[in-house]
Amino acid sequence: MSHGSCAVPMEPRGREEQDSGRRAYNLLLLSVAGLGGLLYGVDVGIIGGALPYLEATSGLSAEQLSVIVAAVLLGSVLSTIFAGLLADWMGRKPLMALSGLVFVISIPMIALSHGYGPLFLGRLLQGSSAGFVGVVVPLYLAECLTSSSRGKGTGIFQWLCTFGIVAAALIGIYYSYHVQAVAARASAATLFHVEDQAWRRIFWISLPPGVLFVLGSLLVGESPRWLFRKGRLERAMSSLLRSRSAAGAELEFAEMQAIANERDANKHAEGSLLRRKYVVPFLLACVILFCNTATGINSIIGFNTSILLQSGLSDVASHWGYVVFTMVNFLMTVVGILLVDKKGRRFLLILGTTGVTLSMLVVAGMFWRTERSEMECRSAVQSMVEPGQELTLRFDPATAAKLLAQSGFSSSQALARHASLAVIYSYGGFTGETTYVRSDDKGAAPIHITRAGTVPVNAVDAFFKNPFADVKAAQTAPLKIERARIGQIPSTQYGEAVALALFSFIGFYALGPGVCVWLALSELMPTRIRSMGMSFALVINQMVSTTLAVIFLPVVSQYGYSSMFLLFAGFAVVYFVTALFFLPETKGKTLEEIEQYFEGAGAREAMAGE
Known about the structure:
This protein is mainly alpha-helical.
């Protein structure tokens, strides 16, 4: 493809009018970025408020609930795989509109669902929208905004993402008060109906951001760098002029031409994707995206209310804790946006990962203190298994006292009134886990264990659950209680301390990784591999997130929250080392300058000396 010169078109309008038009268009770009972030935040955060009511009314097992939470992440993986190809084929702008449309379709599918299948499919579509948004919006912003505003633009994407999570939390707290009021005066059947409607309405309320994002995507222009790569030089220059001065547009157009001319002059070398300028930034971006999610951010957001409940807070206090958690995220993102173009990406990542590591270690230590004193009541629960090899157990203070007494523990009424229970069980080689239930939660659904909810229905499902187990034998095997752990619910003050540590975690995450990860992803990738490289890195990111979401409840049920938070802390250490020793500073650099940095030592020294 030949890249000739492109004259800057004459602009008959006055300078003041031109500046006003550019400011208005840049504001539109930032608004669309914000709507994309809002949509992404709703995708991630909406399940946090809905999960307690979905858990209480759906009849789904802990494993199925984990899959429902993780379905968004799985959808993100699937769509992210194709996002780069689609962005290169159809353009950045059409893909943004498509991602919003997919989200709009997913909401009624979820809110009207009855049963595991439709709910899973709706959440999968919702995640597909998030995957497209996560690739195309940062990609679009990186290619459209100037180097001086790129940090701010991508920060606004993250900022509105956190606002979406705050909004989801506020919706959840509203319904928690409503449910609490009904629980105090209504029958169990009425409470069930109210909780069932609560999670459905939470999803309905999340529909408007998707509609607004679709409309906003139709109003912006196409990426100038995409147009340039497609040989549409006049349109590329026109697109640059919409957001830059004529001098700025000419400078960036010349840099794009220089990169293209270099590629044309050395086609053989440029044709290899194994050159340093491609391999090093690609691997660096992949490690950063891996570690960013491996800190547990999505799992901690998705299961936040459940974590706070188990730490000792009441239902309403846990929902308020989630609201404060999301507001800290929102406010610290603002601080990150203000600092990212002043202090730089690397500085914020080092600071943020340090705080994340320390916060996770504190949370892990606090849960370990309570979990180490849990009591095993396996035999007592096994004796309650029904002749049909099923178990229905309402865990109230009377049941807690009975189980403890049968297990040989001298229990006090205080312990029985504030106890938690998690059961691990199996049919043949297929195991299952319940979520933690509390004896002081009057609205909690009974533990209900069935063969149908545990044993796979086909060979494909069986392979993914346990490839070494015998499905036929499991269909007639007795229900075996592997573990049944009863623990003391900590005091409210203890729960507040855990909440403060989680607030510290999200504050440091928002300040560093939350703001910088999208910048690192879009800035590090060279122009030639940017869309596909971003897709691949985000696939890794979403696969890690999906895996953590799927294993979260099973691991917690079997090993406790302390084990999960220790795992998150370990990955945060890897993140810190990567930022400290391997990440270059990219603030104030054009995308072409960053690409040249990875060519060799001379280019790196020149960039560092500027």
